[in-house]
């Protein structure tokens, strides 16, 4: 069963990536979540570089969070990436949920990034 879920996610991920891409003015904000952590990065696909990244594994966030894999951690990571992008002068991004269903940690991260000033 786990193999079927990963195959479904990979197909969804491929379909989404065929439609969206990041630019220097409007990078792609992509998420990866594991069972223990959540990661997010802003990618410029035209040059193939990561503009900014954040995760629940970072020292500042890890010390304040009880767990790196809950909704509170996702909210903190969303606020962190929004602050880093605003420092670089970026306020608008393209959201890439990376094949994950838009609920729970993915939704919490997106909502906190929007609340912190990112537009998508």
TrEMBL record:
MF terms (GO), sorted A to Z: 5S rRNA binding; structural constituent of ribosome
Keywords: Ribonucleoprotein, Ribosomal protein, RNA-binding, rRNA-binding
Gene Ontology CC, one term: cytosolic large ribosomal subunit
Keyword presence, Ribosomal protein: yes
Pfam families (UniProt xref): Ribosomal_L18p
InterPro entries: Ribosomal_L18, Ribosomal_uL18_bac-type, Ribosomal_uL18_bac/plant/anim
Entry coiled-coil feature ranges: none
Role played: This is one of the proteins that bind and probably mediate the attachment of the 5S RNA into the large ribosomal subunit, where it forms part of the central protuberance.
PANTHER family tied to this protein: 39S RIBOSOMAL PROTEIN L18, MITOCHONDRIAL, LARGE RIBOSOMAL SUBUNIT PROTEIN UL18M
Name of the protein described by the UniProt record: Large ribosomal subunit protein uL18
Gene: rplR
């Amino acid at each position: 069963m786990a193999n079927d879920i990963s195959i479904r996610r990979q197909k969804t991920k491929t379909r989404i990536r065929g439609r969206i891409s990041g630019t220097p003015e409007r990078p792609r904000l992509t998420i990866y979540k594991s069972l223990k952590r959540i990661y997010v990065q802003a990618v410029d696909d035209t040059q193939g570089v990561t503009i900014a990244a954040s995760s629940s594994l970072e020292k500042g966030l890890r010390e304040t969070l009880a767990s790196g894999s809950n909704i509170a951690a996702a909210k903190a990571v969303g606020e962190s990436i929004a602050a880093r992008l605003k420092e670089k002068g970026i306020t608008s991004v393209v959201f890439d949920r990376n094949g994950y269903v838009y609920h729970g940690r993915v939704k919490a991260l997106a909502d906190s990034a929007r609340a912190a000033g990112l537009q998508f």
